[in-house]
Amino acid sequence: MYHLVAGLYAQWNKKSTYHVLLIGLQGGGKTWFQEALRHHYLQGRAPSSRLPPTVGQNVLDLPYQKRILRFWDLGGAPSMRSLWAQYMADAHVLVWVIDGPAWIHNASVENEAAPTYRDATSLAWRAVAEEAHTRGQPIVVLVTKMDDVSSASLVDEIHASLTKTWREGHSDTTPAYALSCYGVSAKTGEGLASVLEAFLADAQSFEATRPPTA
C-alpha cells in the first residue's frame, strides 16, 4: 500500500519539462548565461569570465514555476553546428544568442563564412530561421553582455536586422516562427527574470506541437 501511495504521489508531483536550446556563434555568452542562471537561481558560484568554449553540450535543469526548463548549451564553432539541427527538432524554444558588444563594433571573426560578426551572424541565422519556420517554432533572441553596452536601442536594432535578413529571402512569406528579443547581463543578472518568463510562455505556446516531457 505504501509503495502504491508513494508512486501516485510521485506521479502527481512530476514536473513537466520544456527543452530550451541555446545556440549562436562561438563566444557569444551561451555558457556564461547558463552559469548565471545556475548562480542566481540554484545558488551556484558566480560565472567565470574565462569559461572555455563549449565542446559538445552543457545541460542545466532549472525548476521554474512548478516546471523544469532544461537548457541545452551547444558549442558555437562551425565544426559543432552539425549538432544544432539534431537538437532543434526536440526543442520547445530556440534561443539565438548574440554578443552585444561584438555586434555594435562589428568585430572581426575567424573561421567563419564571413569576416565580420554581423555578416557571420546573419549567415548562420538564416539556417536557424529556416528550420524554425518549417515547424512554427518560437525563437527568443538573447543579446548578451548588456553591462558592456551603452546603446539603449541595440535590442530593437538587432530584432529589425534579423527580421530584414529573413525578408531578403522570403519577400512574400511571413515567418511561421514567433520572434522576440531581450537583452541580458550574466554579470549583473539584468534581464534574467524577463527571459525566463518568455522561455516558459513560448514553450507553452508550442505545446500543442511538442508536448512537454514528464
Describe this structure in words.
One of its GO terms (cellular component) is Golgi apparatus. It comes from Malassezia pachydermatis. One of its GO terms (biological process) is intracellular protein transport. Keywords: GTP-binding, Magnesium, Metal-binding, Nucleotide-binding. One of its GO terms (molecular function) is metal ion binding. The protein has 214 residues and is α/β, with parallel strands linked by helices. It has a single domain, classed as P-loop containing nucleotide triphosphate hydrolases (Rossmann fold). Helix content is 40%, strand content 19%. The protein is built from seven helices and six strands. It has helices at 2-12, 30-42, 82-88, 100-105, 117-135, 154-169, 192-205; strands spanning 17-23, 57-64, 67-74, 93-99, 139-144, 179-183. The chain has a six-stranded mixed beta sheet with strand order 2-3-1-4-5-6, with helices on both faces. Strand 5, helix 6 (154-169) and strand 6 (179-183) form a beta-alpha-beta unit. The longest helix has 19 residues, at 117-135. The protein starts with a helix and ends in a 9-residue tail after the last helix. Residues 2-12 have low confidence and may be disordered.
Tally of individual domains: 1
Oligomer: single chain
Please state the average pLDDT score. 90
Range of helix content:
40-55%
Q: From the 3D coordinates, which CATH architecture would you assign?
A: 3-Layer(aba) Sandwich
Q: What is the general shape?
A: globular
Trace the largest sheet across and list its strands. Answer: 2-3-1-4-5-6
Over all CA atoms, what is the radius of gyration?
Answer: 18 Å
Order of helical and strand elements: HEHEEHEHHEHEH
- Give a short account of the largest sheet: 6 strands, mixed
Instruction: Kindly state the number of beta strands.
Output: 6
Q: Structural class of the secondary structure composition?
A: alpha/beta
CATH class: Alpha Beta
| N-C termini distance | 24 Å
CATH topology: Rossmann fold
What do we call the CATH homologous superfamily? P-loop containing nucleotide triphosphate hydrolases
Number of helices: 7
Share of residues in strands: 15-25%
Contiguous low-pLDDT stretches (5 residues minimum) are 2-12
Pfam family, one: Arf
InterPro entries: P-loop_NTPase, Small_GTPase_ARF, Small_GTPase_ARF/SAR
Protein name: Arl3p
Binding site for Mg(2+): 31, 54
